[in-house]
Design goal:
Number of domains: 1
Structural class: mainly alpha
Mean pLDDT: 91
Low-confidence stretches: none
Largest sheet: none
Shape: globular
Radius of gyration: 13 Å
Strand content: under 5%
Distance between the termini: 36 Å
């Protein structure tokens, strides 16, 4: 599964209001860890937004992979990516670690110039 396919799949479940069964959740969690290093800014933002909309709090490994993606691509995010990411974090009730927050702030500063 590719990053965009992952975010589209999670978004489809969220849009339809479907709950993931245990097996599907395990497959999804493994996919997040596997593809997060290849995510671009939009993939990262969309995946976080979709997971939050679905109401799934990522597990430790999944969260670490997604947060690492934010650190890596955050400075290049556009305003929509930042907004979707921050709203997803708020919806999940999670404050990112300093490195991820700094990356998101860098995107805001860059985009507002």
């Amino acid at each position: 599964m590719k990053p965009q396919e992952l975010s589209n799949t999670v978004w489809a479940y969220a849009t339809l209001g479907l709950e993931l069964g245990a097996k599907a959740r395990a497959v999804l969690d493994a996919a997040v860890v596997r593809v997060a290093p290849d995510m671009n800014a939009q993939d990262t933002a969309n995946t976080l937004w979709s997971v939050a909309t679905l109401g799934l709090m990522p597990g430790v490994a999944e969260w670490a992979a997604l947060e690492a993606a934010v650190v890596r691509v955050g400075p290049g995010m556009n305003a929509q990516n930042v907004a979707n990411t921050v709203l997803a974090l708020a919806k999940l009730g999670v404050m990112p670690r300093a490195a991820a927050w700094t990356a998101l702030e860098a995107a805001v500063v860059q985009d507002c110039r």
